[in-house]
Write a structure and sequence with these properties.
Number of helices: 9
Mean pLDDT: 77
Shape: globular
Number of domains: 2
Order of helices and strands: HEEHHHHHHHH
Strand content: under 5%
Radius of gyration: 22 Å
Distance between the termini: 27 Å
């Protein structure tokens, strides 16, 4: 039985290596988990993750202000008061990731208090300056801002379809490293908003790569890891 399992594992590994070589893609494995490209959405980022590498006192002060703003916004339902704390946190000399997180909260509060023009400016800045960064749920701020701006535009009966067309192209071409579930969700959400205006992109190397990695991960779920416990790691697998 062990011999059969090893033969099966070796055969699957050989087929995988061949297919990856043929299509010019590769995947990085940790045990029986595909870690590149990203197949599964990572766990929620914690607030302390944003201040790693920052000045200790500055980081602590920024977190304190942010936490108080969050408390006023979410628990006390006082977005006007929350804005004051968020603004103070944003003005501190912290990382771009920290600033993006706070700016997203500021924009949300501005919308809650019906300062729609200010909210629009904040979301535009979020998408333009921090568009390649992600929030705690690993959603690119460019995408977050695009959906919020589309909602705000809807309130004024204006069109933002071109922005979504650009974002759609960015998604398909792999601007951001997203999980399979995220890609499927955002593509479907944008297609729903664009309707007949969905651009015809053609074949996507990025989506093909992600699809192959997803199939590989699904194979692990059904058949187990490629190697026996204690067996050496070969190919592109990560130790």
């Amino acid at each position: 039985m062990i011999a059969v399992r090893k033969i099966r594992s070796s055969f699957r590994r050989a087929i995988l290596i061949y297919l990856l070589a043929v299509v010019g893609h590769y995947s990085i494995l940790r045990g029986s988990t595909v870690i590149f490209p990203l197949v599964r959405t990572p766990s929620l980022r914690q607030l302390d993750d944003y201040i790693i590498g920052e000045d200790q006192e500055t980081g602590k002060r920024s977190v304190t202000l942010f936490t108080e703003g969050e408390n006023r916004e979410l628990r006390q339902q006082r977005p006007n008061q929350a804005l004051s704390f968020y603004r103070q946190s944003y003005e501190m000399p912290v990382s771009e990731a920290s600033k993006a997180l706070v700016l997203a909260r500021m924009a949300r509060c501005l919308r809650k208090v019906n300062q729609l023009k200010a909210a629009e400016r904040a979301y535009r800045k979020l998408g333009e300056r921090f568009g390649d960064l992600c929030d705690g749920f690993h959603r690119p701020y460019a995408l977050v801002a695009a959906f919020e701006l589309d909602d705000l535009a809807g309130m004024r009966v204006e069109s933002s379809s071109q922005s979504f067309i650009n974002i759609y192209r960015d998604l398909v071409q792999g601007r951001w490293e997203l999980s399979t579930d995220q890609i499927e969700y955002f593509l479907a959400a944008i297609e729903e908003r664009l309707e007949e205006a969905v651009p015809q992109i053609g074949e996507s190397e990025y989506l093909n790569h992600l699809e192959m990695a997803s199939a590989l991960q699904e194979g692990f779920r059904h058949y187990g890891p490629l190697r026996e416990p204690g067996e050496g790691v070969g190919g592109s697998a990560e130790h």
